[in-house]
Amino acid sequence: MSTLPKPPGLSGRSDVVRIGLPLLRAEADACAWGRALRARPLLTQTPERSRWKPVQDFFFTPVQSMLDAIEHDGSSVRAALADSRHTRNCHPVHRAWALDAVHAYLAARARHEAAGFPASFPVSNEWVGLSRLRQPDARGVAQYERTAWGRRYATRDGSVREIWIPSIGSAKETRSEAEIAAAAAIAATGVPARGSFGEPYRKAGTDAVRPQRVRVIGVGLGDGQPLILADWDADEAVRQFEEHAKKRYAAVLDGRALRPGSDCTTCEGLVGCASLPVVPGLLGVPAPRRPRKRRSVSISDLRAYESCPARFHLTRALYIKDGRSENEAIRRGRAVDAWLNDRHGEHTRIPCRDVPLPAALPGLTEDELGPAVRMVEEHHAFCPLDGLPEDELVRTQWRLAAYDPVVDVVVIADPDLLYTESGGWVWRETKTASRRTWEGRPLLRVYPQLALAVLLMAAGVPGGDPRRSRIELEILRENGSVCEEIDPFDQVTRDEAREIVAELAAGWAHDETYSPTPGDHCADCEVRRWCAASGEPR
Fold first, then answer.
1. Average pLDDT of the chain?
2. Cis (ω within 30 of 0) for the bond into 466?
3. What angle do CA 87, 91, 94 make, to 5 degrees?
4. Statement: residue 537 has pLDDT above 70
5. pLDDT digits (tens, 9 = 90+) for 181-230
6. What does the angle CA 264 – CA 268 – CA 269 come to, to the nearest 5 degrees?
7. Backbone dihedral region of 160: left (phi > 0), alpha (psi from -120 to 50 degrees) or beta?
8. Distance CA 237, CA 233 (A)
9. How far is 231 from 228, CA to CA, in rounded Å?
10. Where are the alpha helices (DSSP H) in 6-137?
11. How many CB atoms lie within 10 A of CB 436?
12. pLDDT at 463
């Protein structure tokens, strides 16, 4: 435990700590240092970065606004849904989804009460686990704040408190024990408090009645079904916190390891970070006319945008989907990738040819299994573990990131496999295909992930000896699979890669409206039911 050193490019106070539920998640590509900074909400980047966003980018904001009007301001449901102020700055498809989500949320509340639980009523103030110290402790912290996002309810006498946590489709059964225990403890011991951006939380009036029982309830905004995640008396909630959450809070606060990736987007310490590669002009596009909130982007994001900007915004920025199942080709590719990742990621390195073929693969039916297994068998000829010395590094789905300061964007890539070979890095992409790639089209255009891989490797990401580094493309078919090699340091290849990435990024980088582009792709669009341009009746 020690005082958090302040990296270059930061200003403000580090003596206030605020940890919400998302920071407690143990994610593979999390940056421990970045999350420790994020837990100090009064630290900000200097010079101040833009936080403007042309459209709303958090799925629950319009739903929250309408529910506040209904539950706290006495508005009728019809009036709240008709009031455009609640959906201002929202994409039209987001607005249509939010109207349905409000109905689903209210239906879940009604189902919960109909199941025999005592009536509970909306609580406007947040509950915050608030600890103020007389003087800063060894971390340099004078105030600790534990928060839980969601909506709050209590019985008339205050003996029962509930925190309702929304999910886009169905209520999540996968929330960690730490998240659930943390939310329950906040309901059990938190005090009514209010805070604003750049300010510490302060108690709001006198302490409310301490509850005897608390519940944490997940709610699906797609199916309107409530899911009880915790139903404990107050003492049990505190005990669960001590067992499952307390150490996670400490781990967040004291994290120091650097890991460039998704956390870079929200990190106030980005400009002073020595671990994140800075590659000006990586995307090959000029700065936007109006500076905006920092974003991240991947090649799969840009391809989704190219198909339909509206679909990109709803599914990639807001993560809204209608829950439809993926087609067989996508599921097959995902299943083969997962099997290969599990195999290549094992501590004991055994070439795939020396491992029995899978008898089943997640997500595939028995009838669909055959082609996938034959693709796995085809991989035997190209498995990188075959003959690879034990002292070489192997990383499966290892997230890479680089920062393009021209557009204030963190560019993300997830190679299927990275491994070292005699001082160089090899970047392996594996694709499954039911037919041969048209030979007249360049590989970098068919698979633009390769174009980004070329630019990143040419810029020194992930590093290693350039003379011994390369990109590999493994295409698995039921028969006739191939493994192609690409030299990222060849000038003609680099020029082609720059052109491809710039073409993909040009529209996305400057778009402020994300208008739909109807077409054949509407048939399998996950947000079609809310999109007026798709022709789907509502």
1. 95
2. no
3. 75
4. no
5. 999 999 999 999 998 888 999 999 776 689 999 999 999 999 999 999 99
6. 80
7. beta
8. 6
9. 7
10. 32-38, 61-71, 77-82, 92-114
11. 10
12. 94
For every residue of 254-281, DSSP letters joined together read H------SGGGGG-TTGGG-SSS-B-TT
Residue written as token pair 């206030």: 16
**DSSP run (H or E) holding 444:** helix 443-446
Tell me phi and psi for residue 96, to 5 degrees.
-60, -40
Q: Are 98 and 56 in contact (CB under 8 A)?
A: no
What is the b/e burial string over 116-134, where b = at least 16 CB atoms within 10 angstroms of the residue's CB? ebeebeebeebbbbbeeee
Q: Could you identify the residue written with the tokens 């209590």?
A: 154
Identify whether the C-beta of residue 415 lies closer than 8 Å to the C-beta of residue 429. yes
pLDDT of residue 487: 97
- By the 8 A CB rule, do 122 and 153 touch? yes
Element housing 53 (H / E): none
Half-sphere exposure in the Cβ direction for 121 (13 Å, CA): 7
Give the pLDDT band (50/70/90) at residue 506: very high
Contact criterion met (CB below 8 Å) for 457 and 493? no
DSSP string, 142-183: SEEEE---SEEEE-TTSSEEEEEEEESSS--S---HHHHHHH
Pairing of strands 470-476, 424-432: parallel
Answer for the pair 284, 297: CB distance below 8 angstroms, yes or no: no
Token pair belonging to 480: 């006739």
Other CB atoms within 10 Å distance of the CB of residue 57: 16
395: helix, strand or coil: strand
Mean pLDDT for the stretch of residues 289-304: 97
For residue 213, which of 178, 177, 238, 180 has the smallest C-alpha distance?
A: 238
Evaluate if residue 69 carries a pLDDT over 80: yes
Q: What is the pLDDT of residue 538?
A: 58
Q: What is the pTM of this model?
A: 0.95
Residue spans of the domains in the chain: they are 61-254
What is the C-alpha separation between 471 and 485, in angstroms, rounded? 6
Q: What pLDDT, in 10s, does the model give residues 76-126?
A: 999 999 999 999 999 999 999 999 999 999 999 999 999 999 999 999 999
